[in-house]
Write a structure and sequence with these properties.
By secondary structure, the protein is α/β, with parallel strands linked by helices. Helix content is about 35%, strand content about 15%. The chain contains 8 helices and 6 strands. The protein has helices at about 5-10, 25-30, 70-80, 95-110, 110-115, 125-130, 155-165, 180-195; strands at about 10-15, 45-50, 60, 85-90, 140-145, 170-175. About 35% of the residues are buried. Bound molecules: guanosine-5'-triphosphate and magnesium ion. Magnesium ion binds near residues 23, 24 and 65.
């Protein structure tokens, strides 16, 4: 992309995850630079202007709320996203376990959303190969929120998941409450799109 093309296009970050993990709080903490005590289910879609983002790219941030949106709406948003942040809460084991479920949920709609997610289980591979464009790849970022509530890191649990899914670009632990790693999170999201480190395609799978 040239700079001009990037400006015209903008970038879309998408936050998904289990209810109450802090998706809306993360967005609002980024925008207002303080922890909001009361948040709606879903933050208004916002565009961060290019000149205040580290990579100088206008960035749209889209929130998701299970309470307010249907699966179809989610998949529609996902199909437009350049990067997807999957948020879990580091103090909530089920929200980490549900990560795997989230992948499965994405994959069942893979033909609809035209996402190229590479899943390593034998069950899903044929479906993905049939339905995805192997040249496209939407990076995922795992976001462990509420780090202020725990002493230990969730990395031990997260690393095996990352190793199984090459589309996960990076992971970050943060806290909307004490603003730890909030700007870093959105920087990693931009970077995942503009300078991906992972393979853009799997050469052995190309014809
Ligand atoms: P849904 O939209 O309902 O799916 O929830 P959500 O993922 O958007 O979470 P939300 O931002 O509504 O936050 C849920 C609860 O967690 C609220 O009570 C927040 O105040 C709290 N919360 C969010 N982030 C943090 C954090 O970093 N630390 C702590 N201690 N609490 C947090
Ligand atoms: Mg919310």
């Amino acid at each position: 992309f040239t700079d001009a093309e990037q400006d015209a296009q903008g970038r879309e970050d998408m936050l998904v995850g289990e209810p109450k993990v802090g998706k809306t709080s993360l967005i609002m903490s980024l925008v207002s630079e303080e922890f909001p005590t009361v948040v709606p289910y879903r933050a208004e879609e916002i565009t961060i202007p290019a000149d205040v983002t580290p990579e100088r790219v206008p960035t749209h941030i889209v929130d998701y709320s299970e309470a307010e949106q249907t699966d179809e709406q989610l998949f529609q948003e996902i199909s437009k996203a350049n990067v997807i942040c999957i948020v879990y809460s580091v103090n909530n084991k089920t929200s980490i376990e549900k990560l795997t479920v989230t992948f499965v949920k994405l994959l069942t709609h893979v033909s609809l959303i035209n996402l190229s997610i590479v899943m390593v289980t034998s069950h899903w591979l044929p479906l993905i190969n049939d339905n995805t464009d192997k040249d496209s790849r939407v990076p995922l970022i795992l976001v462990g929120n509420k780090s202020d509530l725990v002493e230990h890191s969730s990395m031990e649990t997260i690393l095996p998941i990352m190793n199984r899914h090459s589309e996960i670009e990076t992971c970050v632990e943060c806290s909307a409450k004490n603003l730890k790693n909030i700007s870093e999170l959105f920087y990693y999201a931009q970077k995942a799109v503009l300078h991906p480190t992972g393979p853009l395609y799997c050469p052995e799978k190309k014809n």
